[in-house]
Amino acid sequence: MRRERCDMSEVEGGERGGAGGGDGAGDGVADAPPPFSDRVLENVLENVLQFLSSPRDRNAASLVCRSWYRAEAQTRRELFIGNCYAVSPRRATERFRCIRAVVLKGKPRFADFNLVPSNWGAHFHPWVSTMAAAYPWLEKLCLKRISVADGDLSLLAHSFPNFKELSLICCEGFGTAGLAIIAEKCRHLRVLDLIEDCVEDEEDETVDWISRFPGTTTSLESLGFDCVGSAVNFEALEALVARSPALRWLRVNHHVSVEQLRRLMARAPQLTHLGTGSFGSAAAAAPLLQGGGSSVEDLAWTFAASKSLVCLSGFRDVEPHYLPAIHPVCANLTSLNFSFAEVTAEELEPVIRRCHNLQNFWVLDTVGDEGLQAVAATCKDLRELKVFPLDPREDSEGSVSDVGLIAISEGCRKLRSILYFCQQMTNAAVITMSQNCQDLVVFRLCIMGRRRPDHWTGEPMDEGFGAIVMNCKKLRRLAVSGLLTDKAFAYIGEYGKLVRTLSVAFAGNSDLGLRYVLEGCNKLQKLEIRDSPFGDSALLSGLHHYYNMRFVWMSSCKLSPRGCKVVAQMLPLLVVEVIRDRDEDHDNEAVSKLYMYRSLAGSRNDAPSFVEIL
Amino acid sequence: MQKRVMEEDFRKGEGRPQLLDLIPNERDWMVKDVGVGGKCFGVSEEKKLELRLGLPGDEDWSSVKEKREEHSIESALSLGHYSKVSKTIGTNPSSVGAKRGFLDTVESKTEVFQQQQQQQPGFLQLQAKGKELSQKTNGRAEQQSLEKKACGSPAAHGSAAAPCGDGAGANNSSQTRTAPTPVVGWPPIRSFRRNLASISKPSLESQNGGPETAVKFKNGRKGLFVKINMDGIPIGRKVDLKAYDSYEKLSLVVDELFQGLLAAQRDPLTAGTQKNPEEKQAITGLLDGSGEYTLVYEDDEGDRMLVGDVPWDMFVSTAKRLRVLKSSELSASSLGAVSRKRTAT
């Protein structure tokens, strides 16, 4: 079933299936019109199009006509690939010749939770090798959930002499050796951000990569390595910070003690974003003032001197009596990440009540409902809240509940994004939030007990989530949990017209649930479902829409190979992957994991043996 | 359109003829359908939901009481829409069965009517309904165990509503495991956020953060990660053998890794309420056969061996994976033969 208007917008902008494709660039105009005036027109167009930056705008522009298509392709500077398998590297580089920055995303998000076997794919290598030839002037690279090897980093460092910014988010496969090559060879490096990566060293020794930065003044503006498990050479780090006058963002890992942090901060008083290491006296639990240890007052002085700080994170191994040290900067903070800090409400309160300007707050549920009430009382400008569980088990004792959610909704009316882990919730609280926080764009509620109902009424959580989609008219991302019947999905399908990302787990009663969503949510782009009773007929009800989506993930549902094959046959531009767990029978009737996505590249050739592409 | 009598906790023996309050009770409720179709969710200002705790003497709620009284919640828990939808859904019994009770939360001027499927004035009928529920809900009897948890957790007391009283749930139909054993990837927390509780406490007790940080942060020095599984626990772990230099340290780490999970397996209801790690039972005697569990490993030839026999360095170089077996099963399992049992991840 070929579609005329294949809106693969975030891939390449309106590539129609087969029509025009990559050969647009090569086509000359017809013979009749004089080439000169056309050339002038295209030049003018290029100058104008340079001002277009958003990929969606550019995709739209490229659809106007061939001339615009060519002009846009020549002037696009940033390439956004939402799914690395949706297009081949060669095709992308042939169309867009002048790219300076690339964003590349790989594995489905459920890979973060060990649902995707390792070696599934999303390798950086084919991309970096193609880009090495095609984009020698590449400056920026942002990779998310990509498998990156040290060799890839080496190729990167050697191929792009003007390389400036590297961000690796949720990536794996590389170690300190790769980092060392980046540090050494990328002489113009401004940004090296390692965010939630898995940095493992397979060789015998960890490499001292910090020492490999150029010995002269560097242009570093951002350095983040809080996810690196191995300690770095602190003297080298301190010296690096001292010779990096442009440094504004610094995030160290937990091996950096508070005393060491003070020294770094003294070297870089201009920092705006700081990620602390461990926030207690080095390793030992002995509190303060043992000859050489930092007192809280000393630390507070150091923080007070960092007048530009707007974002704090880290706080691993926090010792609560050190927390007052950050009081001097609280009033300026717009972002605070306490999600590794086990603090109680009492310990949080003196800090949070100074944070009038806070917009982003990540916290552990150890602060309890009371802590959230303190947040609600002060942080009137809060936009994003994430509450993580200290003990992420289904039956652990939860500290936050519907009470905290209600408090936040009443105090933080500008809330746009919330991620809330709890053990129990009520419809009433969710409904209240839907009424109070009309600006919500992201609502992710994770009731950790599977299929847990409203703990007051015993009812399903249908009404609560229904209220969210009804009242929060800007909602784009939704994650549901708790006991949910098909009715919840009926609400989502009916009211969630802007929803782009939907995450479902252990919910629904029948195929109808999924059907409601697929038939109703016409802006849906990313759908991830696990352990819900949706079967083939539900899957087939979305055929009209799958080409508009980035991906669909369904695991432990009620799909059969036959149903998936039908989808694959009906939609030839959809890659339908069936992923098997290692020990599974190959003749198993049920499909345990389905991952499907639109693609111009056809079936990938790097699929491992446990992936079957239908 | 009539208000129905809302039955309360029989144990308290307090019945009010016209119940206007929401009484939080972990048991099932009589819920009246708010019969205004169409407008739901706060559009109608008439529907006020005022929460009051009306269970005097129930100490578990007393502290929460003050907080809750302050929250006057406007909501239309309109189930009128539901009745339309459920009829649309038609014969799906689960959606009916899933709604185990009604919530009477509205004040007098709100009109209510009762949904026909749900005519349970009594606690006993709730019980019967609960059994219905268990049969109807797609065989997902694990709802019961989860309802059990939901009922049980706010206030620990004995049998809550009937569904809660029923025994352990059956499985998720697509995985042959028994609930509520941990499931892969649930709750959806990234691995570096797990084990925060077990990590930070030992480090405060001035251990040098060796074993657990090695496990947590995958310390890169000489990493040699092998999988380790424990009998009865579907989730396996990984340990970095090169982070330790003796069998004793390894044994300590194994204890730390699995203590929490083991406690959860043994007693799912109360394990979570223990705050101190010391209260959990330590796993000891792994090396000498004296404990309840014994540590074995699989070497590079596929043979299963007792841990502790060979010098440490030789062990590190030949061990491919570890397993914590019940000591009672040790003689039964043939050492020297590789077990091909599926190890859950």
Q: Please give the radius of gyration of chain A in angstroms.
A: 26 Å
Amino-to-carboxy terminus distance of chain B: 54 Å
Low-confidence stretches of chain A: 1-31, 283-291
Low-confidence stretches of chain B: 1-51, 57-179, 200-222, 271-279, 336-345
Shape of chain B: globular
Number of helices of chain B: 11
Q: Which CATH architecture of the domain at 225-265 and 281-332 in chain B is right?
A: Roll
Helix amount of chain B: 25-40%
The fraction of residues assigned to DSSP E strands of chain A is 15-25%
Major sheet strand order of chain B:
6-5-9-7-8
Q: Summarize the largest interface: chains and residue counts.
A: A-B, 94 and 96 residues
CATH C-level class of the domain at 225-265 and 281-332 in chain B: Alpha Beta
**Helix percentage range of chain A:** 25-40%
Account of the 3D structure:
The complex is a heterodimer of chains A (614) and B (345). Chain A has a 21-stranded mixed β-sheet, with helices on one face. Among the domains of chain A are: 99 residues, no CATH class; 135 residues, Leucine-rich repeat, LRR (right-handed beta-alpha superhelix). Chain A has 20 helices and 21 strands. In chain A, strand 15, helix 17 and strand 16 form a beta-alpha-beta unit. Chain A is globular, with a radius of gyration of 26 Å. In chain A, helix 6 runs parallel beside helix 7 and helix 12 runs parallel beside helix 13. With 345 residues, chain B is an alpha+beta fold. Chain B has a domain of 93 residues: Roll (Ubiquitin-like (UB roll)), CATH 3.10.20. Chain B has eleven helices and nine strands. Chain B has a five-stranded mixed β-sheet. Chain B has a two-stranded antiparallel ribbon with strand order 1-4. The N terminus and C terminus of chain B are likely disordered. Classes of the chains: A alpha/beta (614), B alpha+beta (345). At the A-B interface, helix 15, helix 16 and helix 17 of A face helix 1, helix 2, helix 5, helix 7 and helix 10 of B.
